[in-house]
Amino acid sequence: MGGGWRETVGIGKYGKKSRNLYKPEGGSVMKKVISILLSIAMILAFCAGCGGNTAPASSAAPAASALPAESKDAAPSGESVKITLGHIYNPNHNEAIALEKLKELLAEKSNGRIELVIYPSSQMGSEREMAEQVMLGTLDMGLSDGPTWSNALQVPEIAVFGLPFLYKDIDGQKAVINEILIDSAGEMMIGKGVRPLFGFSASIRGAILATKPIVTAADIDGVKMRVPEITMYVDTWRCLGANPTTTPWGEAYTSIAQGVVDGAEVDPSTIVDANLQEVTKYFSKTAHMGTIHIVSMNEAKWQSIPEDLRKIFLECAAEASAWQIEDRKTTDEAAVQKMVDAGVTVNEVSDEERAKMAERCKPIYDQYDADYGLGDLISQLQEIGG
């Protein structure tokens, strides 16, 4: 080699021989080599620095987009809901008190996350109007019997829960509410945008008369009976042999007092609330009908409530329902005693005579089976509620 260069052989990386060139004198060439190496090192460092700055930016985007996706899968912690409910009862009514208890339970068990706003005393309209509002979503919740929900939602089948002679007493209603009401009613109502959630007992109806007691099925023949303007009630008393007369409930007292009708069919608590014991003489425990109120919510509203709050709601609803049903028994017993104290004669109706009355109403059952295929459900209701 010329130019003063020397060649040496050494052991390089991984144990292989390597050839090295160097010039021991004249350092200018070496300086150039070092300068070039330093420049390359600086360029590499700069590129690494750029890569370090851009890498976090590219990795940050997926992290940011992952947060909203997670929030969709799980309800935000601490989310609160406001639920509106309307009903027709005055604040001292058994069902109104039960709803106030529900309100308190919801606030307590949800730590204030569920606010139930109640509009009593028909502030939001009639019972049917409020049922329609629940369907439309302008009111979140309401409570009505099967026939009223049937009319409001235009689903005739729902009236099956108000058929005559299904429930012998409040315990029978309780069994139906706890065992089959919500699932069976849900199949009929949810498609219309209303979800049944729990039930109340609106008691068992009897006959309060000014003229005579009803002891046998034959005693009903020709009786002028005040009934609500609801098809199921009119049809029931017509089948029983009475002459049903529809008048507003507010006119029941004067209608009996003036002899326009012989009496009315209603539950004990409502009788004394209207003071009918003042213009009548006989209360017969016909147990011809039992009314169950289906407490329901707009389906879209229900779906908007976080799952944890739905669970709390159902727990509180079950507690409020249980309280209402037991309290209704006590309230009705006190009402019957108040009638007795006012001089009204109270009589039972034997199972034999009640069966004869039920047989007179068989055409109503047959119609619901023929029109809607509800024979099996009717049999279940009779078995559980009777």
Give the SSE layout.
Blueprint: E1 6-11, E2 17-22, H1 28-73, E3 81-86, H2 94-109, E4 114-119, H3 127-136, E5 141-145, H4 146-153, H5 170-189, E6 194-204, E7 206-209, E8 224-227, H6 231-240, E9 243-246, H7 252-257, E10 263-266, H8 268-273, E11 282-285, E12 290-298, H9 299-304, H10 307-341, E13 345-348, H11 351-360, H12 362-372, H13 375-385
Parallel strand pairs: 3-4, 8-9, 8-10, 11-13
Antiparallel strand pairs: 1-2, 5-12, 6-12, 7-10, 7-11
Helix pairs in contact: 2-10, 3-4, 5-13
Give your account of this protein's structure.
It is a single chain. The protein is an alpha/beta fold and 386 residues long. It has a domain at 81-207 and 265-385: Bacterial extracellular solute-binding protein, family 7 (D-Maltodextrin-Binding Protein, domain 2). The protein is built from 13 helices and 13 strands. The protein has a 6-stranded mixed beta sheet, sandwiched between helices. A 3-stranded antiparallel beta sheet has the order 5-12-6. Strand 3, helix 2 (94-109) and strand 4 form a beta-alpha-beta unit. Helix 2 runs antiparallel to helix 10 (307-341) and helix 5 (170-189) runs antiparallel to helix 13. It is globular, with a radius of gyration of 39 Å.
Structural class: alpha/beta
Identify the CATH class of the domain at 81-207 and 265-385. Alpha Beta
In angstroms, what separates the terminal alpha carbons?
A: 119 Å
Low-confidence spans: 1-34, 40-76
- Provide the spatial order of strands within the biggest beta sheet: 9-8-10-7-11-13
Beta-strand content? 15-25%
DSSP, total strands: 13
Average pLDDT taken over every residue: 85
> So what's the overall shape?
globular
